[in-house]
Amino acid sequence: MKLAIDQTLRHLSQSDIRIMSIECDKMGGINLSQGVCDLDTPAPVIEGAKKAMDAGLNFYTRYDGIPELRQAIAKKLARYNSIEADAEKNIIASAGATGALFCAMTALLSPGDEVVLFEPYYGYHLHTMQAIGLVPVYVRTHPPDWHLDLAAFEKAITPRTRAIIINTPSNPSGKVFSRDELQAIGEVCARHDLLVFTDEIYEYFIYDGSRHVSPGSLPILKDRTVTVSGPSKTYSITGWRIGYCVTTEERAVRIGHVNDLIYVCAPSPLQAGVAAGMDKLPDSFYASISKTYKAKRDKLCATLEKIGLKPHVPTGAYYVLADSSRLPGKDSKEKAMKLLETSGVATVPGRAFYHDKAGENLLRFCFAKTDEVLDEACRRLEKLDLRG
Ligand code: PLP
């Protein structure tokens, strides 16, 4: 019998990140490819989840999450993001930011709709669109500061374009969109009546005095934005699968129904753990994230500079794109493999972040690692010297 297997998502099985992780494991290397932070989870988060389990919060919750979590998110949105949200009407807790975005795009867009995606992009954004039958429209941001050419952005918009997706701070470039840039983007979106999806999972990972601005806090974008975020990175709980989105009541109801269909609810005791963390952790905890990760960024960037893999020093998130032109290999995959073979450090080939060949001379390094692991990675990298 000939099996009928849909081809739409055939590329999903061959993610470069997964391939590099497998190759890295085979040779006992250090994995700087995956965006998994191996730092400790704050105690109130763990204790909150344990307490909830012991107290019997082990069943389905309302589809948009427990009230304690939605209220904690609403408080945090008002304080940190300057977004006013009603915990009863505007917030959907979901299975990670990934689940929240999937539900939001599924609920609000239709197959064939075009969505502007800024390059370099995060692969899940593209694959989410492809899974739903949306059509990506690629608009490039340019190094060194990942500048967005507004004229090129507006030119890419067609009558079929329904939305854009912003990722600030961005994976993989580390770009932090400024208020002025967001205002300018907002004006284009208002002119063309576009919806804005914004992924702010790295909102606390910001360096060099830059500030996180939520697109949804700008008056011009307030009513056309779906803000997606979550504690996966902030609390180092990527495996818990808690995230959320925030938008107008009308949209939130639709997204909530999709969330109910796909996930039923986010894991109940873990929702309680996140709510406890949000209630109990002081501002100094969030400020310490920038400080801790800036030191990691600086350590890795100094090493990369020293060996001739020139880094694009990021102002946010926890990845560095480095220029790999000096590594042998015909494309970024071969260069990443060469680096893994010679240094034992795994990275992501730059081609994972572009639809064309623009990423072939880039490698992405993740610095969300314990100091011990990062030091060892830097020691191994320093044995290479490509400057000659
Ligand atoms: N959004 C971006 C831009 C990411 O880089 C990642 C993880 O690497 C996620 C979302 C995943 O978030 P979550 O674990 O909440 O699904």
Keywords:
binds pyridoxal-5'-phosphate, eight-stranded mixed β-sheet, 388 residues, globular, alpha/beta, four-stranded antiparallel β-sheet
Query: How many DSSP E strands?
Result: 14
The ordered H/E elements are HEHHEHEHEEHEHEEEHHHEEHEEEH
Largest sheet: 8 strands, mixed
**What's the mean pLDDT score?**
95
Would you kindly provide a written description of the structure presented here, covering whatever features stand out?
The protein is of the alpha/beta class and 388 residues long. The protein contains twelve helices and 14 strands. It has helices at 16-26, 43-54, 67-81, 96-108, 123-132, 150-156, 179-191, 249-263, 268-280, 283-307, 332-343, 371-382; strands at residues 30-31, 91-94, 114-119, 135-142, 147-148, 161-167, 195-199, 225-229, 243-246, 311-312, 319-323, 345-346, 348-349, 362-366. The strands form three sheets. The protein has an eight-stranded mixed beta sheet with strand order 2-9-8-7-6-3-4-5, sandwiched between helices. The protein has a four-stranded antiparallel beta sheet with strand order 10-11-14-13. Helix 1 (16-26) runs parallel beside helix 11, helix 2 (43-54) packs across helix 9 (268-280) and helix 3 runs parallel beside helix 9. The model has no long low-confidence stretch (mean pLDDT 95). Pyridoxal-5'-phosphate (PLP) binds at residues 35, 96-98, 122, 167, 171, 199, 201, 230, 232, 238, 243.
